[in-house]
């Protein structure tokens, strides 16, 4: 199949599909799902006028944003001011390039459905997460106004503080899997059970870190407009919308990573992968021309659960104050991450 | 095909490095340095050093330049004058021309193996291979580097946290 | 996996970047941009290490480049704290004015 070829055409096809899937469909559906689910949690209906079930509301909002007048601050650094929203979108899409969605058996070996199956996959996603700081810092600084500068520095400090516990949790998963390749991590969870059960502390640390990395409640002090002036105070219309699109793209990427690392990726159940299901059913799921999409759909269902979790937690927990936020990262999550790492080391040496 | 991409990446790396030293605003200099690091990381991937390519983005672009940007923004450093008077400007340009001549001279002198039919093994530059090398024969380098990082942390604390006089 | 370009081209790129960094150190007049030029120098050295590592099929070049990156991180941390101390004490970052040791 052309989709799995390791040459240029296959790579371009995979890039187009993943890019189109994220920005064409998933971000749009995330916006709709956020508004609808927030409404249901708050016991109201949400958008239901524009299109069936309010599905075209995002389109209407996009058209509104395009027609809005753009107000630029005086004496701002033109180039950086325009660059910052695009720089926010860039890491979110780049990290999606190493996420495997499923697998297919071609010629006897199982090949993952991924844009680039690089050897240091997890480390690549960590490094792309570090690039998200640039857009925040630049957005604050190029607005040439006191409060956005401080807001940008504060939000940037939050993001880089939570990269450390995220790295510690990822390190524990790397030890358990024995390889940094994301498709290998999923395959190892087939035999060892989901890593959720092998390092639950790591899952907890990672979950908290990704909420903070995507600036999502309860860590969204930088963008809480009612409380504090954030780094995008001087942005309006399309650029403002791009920041939030980047946030949704980040959420999708990070949910995919959680599912891959802790919930078995596209495999069926903790100790029962699709191979066992294939022997149970009598026909091979990976090699079947139609059924090979079932693991991918199962993966997407798991990712949707995590996206629902993001929206659910947003309306459940109150916002952290900034000093509570930083204390949580440095004084609580990092020690827990280190304890998790040590227990994982002991577990790995005992198991092998 | 990969050779064309290598030349594109190296051209952009040289361009962005030139922009680092030619631009007046320090923040845009730092950003073109990030772009240069990206191009160099792509070159690392092409040279079959995938772990180093990832580490380059993770540490250089993701941590060191962020530190630079924080210091630039906190100290509120604006555009600086690049060269102040005419004599120094002439010296600066003359220096660059001399550098160019030296580089071209170096190209003539280098006589390196140019065989492009050499193959490297499939596991070259992978995380596992790099780890075996770093923690095997070069374990002492690993320990010394961790000591250097510890010294850096202590040095930063010693330099910055000083009691205010008066 | 074969070599993509001849080794001399990789070393040529490393040389060009090295001389650009060197020019930056000689030309720039404030402390932080001199630091940025030093980072370009270290990058150029890394490219040379990786090129030779591929040519000799030895991972030592990778270990050396990794060490250079870690030392560059430590140096950036200390250098920037020196810059902060300079700005706090002398109020200027122009290298021309920081000449207390001269004469």
Task: Tell me about this structure.
Chain A is mainly α. The radius of gyration of chain A is 21 Å and the shape is globular. Helix content of chain A is 66%, strand content 2%. The model of chain A has no long low-confidence stretch (mean pLDDT 85). Chain A is built from 13 helices and two strands; from the N terminus they run αααββαααααααααα. The model of chain B has no long low-confidence stretch (mean pLDDT 84). Chain B has one domain (2-124): Four Helix Bundle (Hemerythrin (Met), subunit A). Chain B has helices at 2-22, 26-46, 50-74, 86-109, 127-135, 139-160. Chain B is an all-alpha fold and 166 residues long. With 103 residues, chain C is mostly helical. Chain C is 76% helix and 0% strand. Chain C has three helices and no strands. Chain C has helices at 7-27, 31-56, 60-90. In chain C, helix 2 (31-56) packs antiparallel against helix 3 (60-90). Chain C is elongated. Chain C starts with 6 loop residues before the first helix and ends in a 13-residue tail after the last helix. The mean pLDDT of chain C is 87. Chains in contact: A-B, B-C. The interface between B and C is large, with 82 and 69 residues.
Topology:
The complex is a heterotrimer of chains A (352), B (166) and C (103).
Chain A: H1 8-41, H2 57-67, H3 78-95, E1 103-106, E2 109-112, H4 121-130, H5 132-142, H6 146-177, H7 182-192, H8 195-198, H9 200-213, H10 237-262, H11 274-281, H12 293-314, H13 322-351
Antiparallel strand pairs in A: 1-2
Helix pairs in contact in A: 1-10, 1-12, 3-4, 3-5, 3-10, 4-6, 5-6, 6-7, 6-9, 6-13, 9-10, 9-13, 10-12
Chain B: H1 2-22, H2 26-46, H3 50-74, H4 86-109, H5 127-135, H6 139-160
Helix pairs in contact in B: 1-2, 2-3
Chain C: H1 7-27, H2 31-56, H3 60-90
Helix pairs in contact in C: 1-2, 2-3
Distance between the termini of chain B: 66 Å
Beta strands of chain B, count: 0
Provide the residue-averaged pLDDT of chain C.
87
What is the name of the CATH topology of chain B?
Four Helix Bundle (Hemerythrin (Met), subunit A)
Helical proportion of chain B, percent range: over 70%
- In terms of DSSP E residues, the strand content of chain C is under 5%
Query: What distance lies between the first and last C-alpha atoms of chain C, to the nearest angstrom?
Result: 59 Å
Radius of gyration of chain B: 21 Å
Largest sheet of chain C, in brief, is: none
Number of helices of chain C: 3
Question: Which CATH C-level class of chain B is it?
Answer: Mainly Alpha
- Give the biggest sheet of chain B: none
- The oligomerization state is heterotrimer
Low-confidence stretches of chain B: none
Unreliable parts of chain C: none
Give the name of the CATH architecture of chain B: Up-down Bundle
Shape of chain C: elongated
CATH superfamily of chain B: NADH-ubiquinone/plastoquinone oxidoreductase chain 6, subunit NuoJ
Mean pLDDT of chain B: 84
């Amino acid at each position: 199949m052309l989709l799995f070829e390791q040459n240029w055409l296959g790579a371009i096809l995979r890039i187009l599909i993943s890019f189109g899937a994220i920005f064409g469909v998933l971000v749009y559906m995330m916006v709709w799902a956020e508004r609808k689910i927030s409404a249901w949690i708050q016991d109201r209906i949400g958008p239901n006028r524009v299109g069936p079930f309010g599905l075209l509301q995002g389109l209407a909002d996009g058209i509104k944003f395009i027609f809005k007048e753009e107000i630029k601050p005086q004496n701002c650094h033109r180039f950086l001011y325009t660059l910052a929203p695009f720089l926010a979108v860039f890491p979110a899409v780049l990290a999606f390039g190493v996420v495997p969605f499923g697998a297919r058996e071609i010629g006897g070996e199982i090949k993952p459905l991924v844009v680039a199956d690089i050897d240091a996959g997890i480390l690549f996603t960590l490094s792309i997460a570090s690039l998200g700081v640039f857009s925040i810092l630049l957005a604050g600084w190029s607005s040439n106004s006191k409060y956005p500068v401080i807001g940008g520095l504060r939000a940037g400090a939050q993001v880089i503080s939570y990269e450390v516990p995220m790295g510690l949790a990822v390190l524990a998963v790397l030890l358990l899997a024995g390889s940094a390749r994301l498709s290998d991590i999923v395959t190892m969870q087939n035999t060892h059970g989901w890593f959720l059960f092998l390092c639950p502390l790591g899952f907890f640390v990672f979950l908290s870190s990704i909420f903070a990395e995507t600036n999502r409640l309860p860590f969204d002090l930088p963008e809480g407009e009612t409380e504090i002036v954030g780094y995008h105070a001087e942005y309006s219309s399309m650029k403002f919308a791009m920041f939030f699109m980047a946030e949704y793209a980040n959420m999708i990427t990070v949910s995919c990573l959680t599912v891959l690392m802790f919930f078995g990726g596209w495999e069926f159940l903790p100790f029962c992968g699709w191979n066992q299901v294939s022997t149970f059913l009598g026909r091979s799921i990976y090699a079947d021309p139609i059924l090979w999409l079932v693991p991918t759909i199962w993966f997407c269902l798991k990712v949707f659960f995590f996206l629902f979790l993001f929206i659910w937690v947003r309306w459940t927990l109150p916002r952290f104050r900034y000093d509570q936020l930083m204390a949580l990262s440095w004084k609580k999550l990092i020690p827990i991450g280190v304890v998790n790492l040590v227990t994982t080391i002991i577990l790995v040496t005992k198991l092998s | 095909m990969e050779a064309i991409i290598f030349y594109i990446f190296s051209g952009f790396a040289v361009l962005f490095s030139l922009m680092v030293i030619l631009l007046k605003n320090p923040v845009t200099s730092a950003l073109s340095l990030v772009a240069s690091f990206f191009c160099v990381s792509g070159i690392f991937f092409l040279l079959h050093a995938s772990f180093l390519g990832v580490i380059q983005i993770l540490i250089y672009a993701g941590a060191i330049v962020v530190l630079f940007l924080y210091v630039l923004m906190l100290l509120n450093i604006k555009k600086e004058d690049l060269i102040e008077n005419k004599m120094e400007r002439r010296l600066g340009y003359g220096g660059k021309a001399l550098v160019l001549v030296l580089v071209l001279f170096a190209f003539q002198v280098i006589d390196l193996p140019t065989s492009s039919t050499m193959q490297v093994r499939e596991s070259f530059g992978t995380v596992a291979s790099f780890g075996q090398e770093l923690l095997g024969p070069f374990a002492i380098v690993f320990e010394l580097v961790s000591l250097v990082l510890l010294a850096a942390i202590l040095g930063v604390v010693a330099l910055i946290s000083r009691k205010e006089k008066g | 996996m074969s070599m993509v370009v001849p080794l001399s081209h990789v070393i040529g790129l490393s040389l060009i970047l090295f001389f650009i960094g060197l020019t930056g150190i000689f030309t720039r007049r404030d402390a932080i941009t001199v630091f940025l030029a030093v980072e370009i120098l270290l990058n150029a050295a890394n490219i040379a290490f990786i090129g030779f590592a591929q040519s000799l099929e030895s991972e030592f070049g990778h270990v050396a480049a990794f060490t250079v990156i870690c030392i560059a991180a430590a140096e950036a941390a200390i250098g920037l704290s020196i810059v902060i101390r300079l700005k706090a004490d002398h109020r200027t970052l122009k290298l021309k004015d920081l000449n207390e040791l001269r004469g």
